C-alpha cells in the first residue's frame, strides 16, 4: 500500500451495519482491528458477532491506538464528530481517517486534516444487512474513493483488500453520486415491497421468494443494457406489445 504497505492498526467508530463488516474484511486481509466503538446494546451485539475478538473501546482510545480510523457513523453525525475530536486535539498527525458516507467528500474531514491527519472518503455501493452475508457481497461491490491525488492509491488499495472494485469520484461529484445511490436503493425497495404486497393479497405464499429470480434477472438485464447505450430506446407500448 505505497508507503504504508503491510499491516495497519485499524480502529472503527460506529458498529452499525457498515463498520463491523469493513473491519472484518480488512482483518481478513491481514490488518489488525484494535478496537470498535459501540453504544447501544444492538450495536454491541453486532460488533461481538462480526468481530468477536475485537475489544469495544471509547472513541479517544481508538484514535490514540490506530493508524487508520474508520468513521462508520450516520451522515448527520459525521461533521459534529470530526469537529468535536478536532476541538480536543484528538486526531494524530500522519493518521489515516476514512469515512463511509456517500454524500461527503474529504472536506468534512478538514478539521482532522488541519491536525495532520490524512483524509479518505470511501463508500461501498451496497445495501448492507449488518450480518456476515455482507462480507461475501463485498467481492461484487464497487467503492467510491475520494481523496487527495497523492492518497488515492492508498484508498484504492484498501478497497481491493476488502475484495471490492475502486472508482475515483471527485469531491465536487459526491452529491450527485449520493443521489444516484439513494435513487437506486429507494426505488428497488419500493417496487419490491409493492409487488410482494400484491402477490400476498392474492394468496401467493412467500412472495419474496416467488419474485426473487424475476427481480434479480430484471435488474441484471437492466444493468447490462447500460453498457450498450445504443440498445436503449424510449419505451413506446401499444396494444401489440401487451
What does this structure look like?
The structure is a single chain. The termini are far apart. With about 240 residues, this protein is of the alpha/beta class. The chain has 9 helices and 7 strands; from the N terminus they run βαβααβαβαβαβαβαα.
Task: Give a brief outline of the structure.
The protein has 9 helices and 7 strands, in the order βαβααβαβαβαβαβαα. It is α/β, with parallel strands linked by helices and 242 residues long.
What's the structural blueprint in terms of helices and strands?
Layout: E1 9-13, H1 19-28, E2 32-37, H2 41-50, H3 59-65, E3 68-71, H4 75-87, E4 96-99, H5 110-114, E5 118-124, H6 133-137, E6 142-146, H7 152-161, E7 165-168, H8 174-201, H9 207-225
Parallel strand pairs: 1-2, 1-3, 3-4, 4-5, 6-7
Antiparallel strand pairs: 5-6
Question: How much is the radius of gyration in Å?
Answer: 20 Å
Strand order of the main beta sheet, please? 2-1-3-4-5-6-7
Q: Tell me, what's the shape?
A: globular
CATH topology of the largest domain: Rossmann fold
Give the uncertain stretches in residue-range form: 1-5, 231-242
CATH architectural grouping of the largest domain: 3-Layer(aba) Sandwich
Succession of helices and strands: EHEHHEHEHEHEHEHH
Integer count of domains: 2
Major beta-sheet overview: 7 strands, mixed
Judged by helices, strands and strand pairing, the structural class is alpha/beta
How is the quaternary structure best described? single chain
Q: What do we call the CATH homologous superfamily of the largest domain?
A: NAD(P)-binding Rossmann-like Domain
Number of helices: 9
* Percent in strands: 5-15%
Question: Quick one: how many beta strands?
Answer: 7
Mean pLDDT: 89
Helical proportion?
40-55%
Level-1 CATH class name of the largest domain: Alpha Beta
Distance between the termini: 55 Å
Domain Putative oxidoreductase/dehydrogenase Rossmann-like: 4-124
Domain DUF2520: 142-226
Pfam families: DUF2520, Rossmann-like
InterPro entries: DUF2520 (IPR018931), NAD(P)-bd_dom_sf (IPR036291), OxRdtase/DH_put_Rossmann_dom (IPR019665)
